[in-house]
Amino acid sequence: MIELPQATLEADAIPVRRRRALPPSTGRRPWTFYVLATLFTLYVIGLYGPMVCIYILSFQDVRGGLVFPMRGTSLHWFVDLFTQVRTGDVKGAFSRSIRLAVVVTAITVVISFMAGLAFRRRFTGDSVVFYLMIGSLVAPGLVLGIGVGLICNVLGFEASWYTTALGAQLSWTLPFGVLVMFAVMARFNNAWEEAARDLGATAWQTIYLVIIPVLAPGLVAVGLFGFTLSYDEFTRTLLTAGSLNTLPLEIWSMTLNVTSPSLYALGTVTTLISFLIIGICLGTIARIQKRRAAGPAAH
Amino acid sequence: MPVENGSIELAGIVKSYDGVNRVVDGVNLKIADGSYCCFLGPSGCGKTTILRMIAGHEDPSDGEILIGGEQVVGLAPVERRTAMMFQSYALFPHLNVRDNIAFALRVRGISATERRKAADAMIEKVRMTELADRLPAQLSGGQQQRVALARAAITGPKVLLLDEPLSALDEQLRVQMRQELSRMQRDLGITFIHVTHTQLEAIAIADTVVVMEKGRIKQAGPARDVYDQPRDRYVAEFLGGQNVLSGRIERIEGDSAMISADEMRDVIVPLGPRRTVSAGDRVDFAVRRDDVDLVRPEIGAGRQRAKVPSRVRAIEYQGNFVKVMLDNIGSDELIAYVPDRIFYRDPFSIGDIVVAGWDQDKTRMLA
Fold first, then answer.
1. ipTM, 2 decimals?
2. Is the domain of B108 the same as that of B210?
């Protein structure tokens, strides 16, 4: 009986709250979760649905057509793609695209890396240089392609995929590469470089023992960007590739004259290649980080 | 000619980035070989710039830097036999503890087995053997500091330069690592130059404390001298523990001045080395807070004591002493540190009228 007045006293001192800030957790999700989950599902379907249709239809057999329903299953159209002349020079276009993308990637990584190093400190005119670099991103690709073609014409170059198209693609991949590099460099501590110098490293040793290893995951990301942008490039390449097509140009011309599921088969193959390359890059980044976490063995 | 001795001499060092503002403005200083020297000052006072100039990461605009008697301006850090420990340690994130420590040997082209041996010996010295294969990100702040220390020390420098080495640590660890730095300095027997903005840190470890303000040295000397006998108001206030009061000289009597202000009358301050002052001058003087004692007005104080009637404004318990804040004298704070045993014999409360007193010979005239 003695505790009772004590309890009422406490209750008086602390006013009873009518509502809590958050309802007590009952283990159920709020209705907003279901709304947002639905929205996200629709987004994913919209994003991947069309592509998945193409992939499915590419596995039809010889009776297959361009629309659903699916007629049988086989790899017929994949074989057809690489053996039939009437579907165009897919093999050649593919090898050109890969080679071009590799060259574009290499140049993009090297130049972006150097630009990243240059922009560690402010210098006179740095913002002008930066905006000039970024400016070409807003220029319409087709117009830029025409311009590159015109200049080559004036200079007497013949347009080809490994000269003019290379230049036109670099105008697209370099600004992106540099932007990614800036994001990567933002996390680079200049004191690392100074520490290397303090410990007696030469400028070159600092670059290959400290800067490149520290930035390696970022450089792989820049490379990945360069590769996919180039491998997929259409508008800038269209008027600069000369007589031989890159893969996107080949696909485009196929949409105009090929009316068989081999077109879809081509879509499936190129997607697989893209995923393979992305997988290799992400795997490399993961391996670098894992090796760091485990601690390097003797080297 | 290689530097064989870690004594440092700065002669008329000036550093200016824009040719107008001088970050370092004419610094002259000698630091003995094998001593522990602290540069102390608020941020932007030029202390880190001096450190970086000694290290060879920046060149002075004017003046000379001598290490072991050799002119070193223009030489690379390695040729100066200096090593620097950076503020956030700047450990290489992609290398484990051993490879970080062995980095300096690697760039010198020393074989893998040899540098591993040397690195492991150094790792043992800083007690990191179990963690030798960890990456910097997997270490605590204190462990990172040890690795940074080992990495800097492996080349056998004559001078180790430490830029705010303890600022990244929490309070408890800071005290612990302070001792570790002290121990390493004795072990290695080389000159340590340590930059900090924390007074307690500086006076706790340094043989020589250099107090800086706006690119100039305000006072340099043994820690105790700088703390106990500050030369001017800036040093006294920056190091703390002092009441810095200001007043007008009423008259000079022999070696002492009688000083008054609105809130105090005829406080006697020994002139000390300042003999150029005369009656009517406004001067600053200092008295340590722990030299001030407080009594209630009815109790008379002894002779030879300065007496200032005042009132208790605030009280803070600090553990071993009680900080009693009294009414300001002009714009100057008057604070007494009363040992807690004495305070609680007859505790004051806020608003009490007290008489603050101190021995006249404990006061010090400031420049």
1. 0.80
2. yes
The pLDDT tens digits of the residues spanning A244-264 come to 888 888 888 888 877 778 888
Report the distance separating Cα A210 and Cα A247, nearest Å: 38
Separation of alpha carbons A107 and A170, rounded Å: 8
- Look at residues B233, B253, B286 and tell me which one is the last residue of a structural domain: B233
Give me the number of domains chain B comprises.
2
Domain count, chain A: 1
From chain B, the residues in CB contact with A218 under 8 A are none
Nearest CA in chain A to B156: A199
Domain residues for A248? Answer: 89-256
| Average pLDDT of chain B, as a whole number | 88
Q: Is residue B1 part of a domain?
A: no
The β-bridge partners of B191 are B159
pLDDT in tens, A172-208: 899 999 999 999 888 888 899 999 999 999 999 999 9
For residue A298, what pLDDT is reported? 39
Give 3-state DSSP helix, strand, coil % of chain A, rounded to 5: 70, 0, 30
Residues of chain B that touch chain A, judged by Cβ-Cβ distance less than 8 Å? 55-57, 76-78, 83-84, 86-88, 90-96, 99, 103-104, 106-108, 112, 116, 133-135, 138, 151-152, 155
- Identify the CATH number of the domain in which residue B164 sits: 3.40.50.300
Q: In B, which residues are within 8 Å of A295 by CB distance?
A: 96, 133-135
CB B332 within 8 A of CB B246: yes
Summarize chain B as % helix, strand, coil (round to 5).
Answer: 30, 35, 35
List of chain A residues whose C-beta atoms are within 8 Å of the C-beta of residue B92: 192, 195-196, 210, 214
Among A122, A188, A198, the residue to mutate for chain B (most B Cβ within 10 A): A198
User: Helix (H, G, I), strand (E, B), or coil: what is residue A7?
Assistant: helix
**CATH code at position B317:** 2.40.50.100
Top residue of A190, A199, A219, A292 to mutate, by most chain B CBs within 10 Å, is: A199
Alpha carbon of B78: minimum distance to chain A alpha carbons (Å): 6
Residues B179 and B229 in one domain: yes
Distance from C-alpha of B139 to C-alpha of B162, rounded to nearest angstrom: 20
Q: How close is the nearest chain B Cα to the Cα of A201, in Å?
A: 5
Same domain (yes/no): B202, B250: no
Same domain, B216 and B313: no
Q: Which of B233, B266, B299 finishes a domain?
A: B233
Contact B90 A200 (CB under 8 A): no
Give the domain extent around B26: 8-233
The reply to whether residue A296 touches residue B107, judged by beta carbons under 8 angstroms, is: no
Residue B195, SS3? strand
